[in-house]
Design brief:
The protein is of the alpha+beta class. It is about 50% helix and about 10% strand. A hairpin with a 2-residue loop joins strand 7 and strand 8 (about 245).
Length: about 425
C-alpha cells in the first residue's frame, strides 16, 4: 500500500480483509503478537490502547446536558461547525454516515447525521460528551488522528474495541492557525464504503477549510501561562504568572486530576477519582475544595469543578512525547512517577499509564544508553523487564553486560523466576 493512512488498497476485498483483521485482533488480545495485514500505525495504536482500554468496554461519557452545552459552545471549533455542516453534513446524512467533531482530548462535541446511524452509534457511546481518545476508547480515527497529528482512516476490525468494529471512520486533526495548538478533529463515521481515498481526502479538506476560516478571525487574547509540575514529587507546584503555589498532597491530587479533565468534574466524579469506592462524607471533599479555592482564587471554578485557564503540566508533556514515540524526549521529560505517594485511583491510573509507556517505549527502542539511564534511576532499579531488555541490547563483551546479567539474575531470584 502506497499510502499508509488509507485503510484499504485499491481492489482489496473488504469482507476478506475484515476477517483477516478480526483474526489478527484476536491473536493480539490472546498472545500479544501482531501479524497479518495490520498496518504499522494500527499496530502501534493497539499496543497503546491495550495498556489502558478493555476491548469489550464502551467509551466513557464525560459531559452531559448543561455541562456539555457550556463547554462546546465556548470551544474554538464551535466557530467552524456551520462550515463542517455545509461541507460534510449533507454527505453524512445522504450516505447514512455520521459527522463528528471532537476536542483535543478526544471528547466528542457534536455527532450529527443520519438518524438510523446515530441510533446505532448510541449503542457504542459514540455520542456528544463521550471520550474517544485512544486511552479511553482504543484505536479509532478521531483518537488516532489527535495522537499522531495526521488524517487517518480506521477500518472495521482495525478498531481496538470490539463494539466499534462494525464501523469505519476517517478523521483529520485541526490546529489553531495562530498558535499551532491542537484543537481537535473532524470525523466521518459509517460503513465499509468509507474505506476509500475519497473519505480521507474529504475530512482533510474540511480540516484545512476550518483552519483557513479560523485564520481570518482575530487571535484570542493570550491567557497567563499556568504550569503544573507533578512528576517525581508529592507536593505539586502550580505557577500562574508570577505566582508560585506549592500544594499539599491532597490538593496536588485534585489539581492533577482537574488538569487531566479540562472539561471539569462533578463532585461525584472527583470523589471517585480521589477516593474510589471508599465511603466518604461529602463534606470532606467540599472542605478540601474550599481550602483549595482559597489558595487558587478564581483559577478554580465549580459546577463542574475545573481550572479556568489551560494548564501546561509536565506529565502531559511526557504523554505527548510518548504518543510521538520519541524515547529520548520522553526520558528527558520523565522526572519520576506522577505524585508517587498518592493512592488516589485517578492518579494511580495516570501514573501507571505514564510509567508503563516510558518503559515500553525504551524496551521497544532497544537503545542500551537509554535503557542504562532508566535502570540506574530509582524507579528503574527493580524493573526486571527493562533490565532484561538492556541485557539483550548490550553486545557481547560490553563492560556493562556482566552487571546487567547479575541484576537480571538477582531480580529473577527475588521474583521467583527462572534465569535464562
Amino acid at each position: 500500500m502506497t499510502n499508509p493512512w488509507l485503510a484499504l488498497e485499491s481492489g482489496a476485498d473488504a469482507a476478506e480483509r475484515t476477517g483477516e483483521l478480526r483474526r489478527a485482533h484476536e491473536r493480539f488480545l490472546s498472545a500479544g503478537a501482531i501479524d497479518g495485514p495490520v498496518r504499522s500505525l494500527v499496530a502501534d495504536s493497539w499496543r497503546r490502547s491495550a495498556r489502558a482500554v478493555d476491548p469489550d468496554a464502551l467509551a466513557p461519557l464525560e459531559l452531559t446536558d448543561a455541562g456539555l452545552e457550556e463547554y462546546r459552545s465556548a470551544h474554538p471549533l464551535a466557530k467552524v461547525l456551520p462550515l463542517f455542516r455545509d461541507l460534510l453534513g449533507g454527505i453524512a446524512d445522504d450516505g447514512r454516515h455520521l459527522l463528528a467533531v471532537c476536542d483535543a482530548a478526544g471528547r466528542l462535541l457534536w455527532v450529527e447525521g443520519h438518524r438510523g446511524a446515530r441510533a446505532r452509534a448510541e449503542r457504542m457511546n459514540f455520542v456528544a460528551g463521550a471520550r474517544w481518545d485512544e486511552s479511553h476508547a482504543g484505536t479509532n480515527a478521531p483518537g488516532v488522528a489527535i495522537t499522531v497529528g495526521h488524517p487517518v482512516q480506521i477500518f472495521a476490525a482495525e478498531h481496538f474495541a470490539v463494539p466499534v468494529q462494525p464501523w469505519t471512520c476517517a478523521a483529520a486533526p485541526i490546529h489553531d492557525p495562530h498558535t499551532g495548538r491542537l484543537l481537535g478533529a473532524v470525523d466521518v463515521t459509517g460503513g465499509d464504503n468509507l474505506a476509500s481515498p475519497y473519505s480521507l481526502a474529504l475530512v482533510q479538506a474540511a480540516a484545512r477549510a476550518a483552519e483557513a476560516h479560523l485564520a481570518t478571525l482575530p487571535a484570542p487574547a493570550a491567557a497567563p501561562a499556568v504550569t503544573l509540575t507533578a512528576l517525581g514529587r508529592d507536593d505539586a507546584v502550580l505557577t500562574e504568572g508570577p505566582r508560585r503555589i506549592r500544594l499539599g498532597p491532597r490538593h496536588s491530587e485534585i489539581v492533577v486530576l482537574l488538569a487531566c479533565h479540562p472539561e471539569g468534574l462533578s463532585s461525584d466524579q472527583l470523589s471517585a477519582e480521589l477516593y474510589g469506592d471508599r465511603t466518604l462524607n461529602p463534606v470532606t471533599l467540599r472542605a478540601e475544595l474550599s481550602r483549595l479555592r482559597h489558595r487558587l482564587g478564581p483559577l478554580l471554578d465549580s459546577r463542574p469543578y475545573r481550572l479556568r485557564l489551560p494548564v501546561r503540566a509536565d506529565f502531559q508533556e511526557l504523554a505527548e512525547h510518548l504518543a510521538a514515540a520519541d524515547a529520548d524526549a520522553a526520558l528527558r521529560a520523565y522526572r519520576g512517577p506522577l505524585l508517587p505517594g498518592s493512592d488516589a485511583p485517578g492518579v494511580v491510573w495516570q501514573r501507571r499509564l505514564l510509567d508503563d509507556g516510558v518503559r515500553d517505549l525504551l524496551v521497544a527502542r532497544r537503545d542500551p544508553a537509554l535503557l542504562e539511564r532508566w535502570t540506574r534511576a530509582p524507579w528503574g532499579r527493580d524493573d526486571i523487564v527493562a533490565w532484561q531488555a538492556l541485557l539483550a541490547a548490550l553486545p557481547a563483551g560490553a563492560p556493562a553486560r556482566a552487571r546487567a546479567a547479575r541484576r537480571v539474575r538477582d531480580l529473577d531470584a527475588e521474583y521467583g523466576l527462572p534465569f535464562r
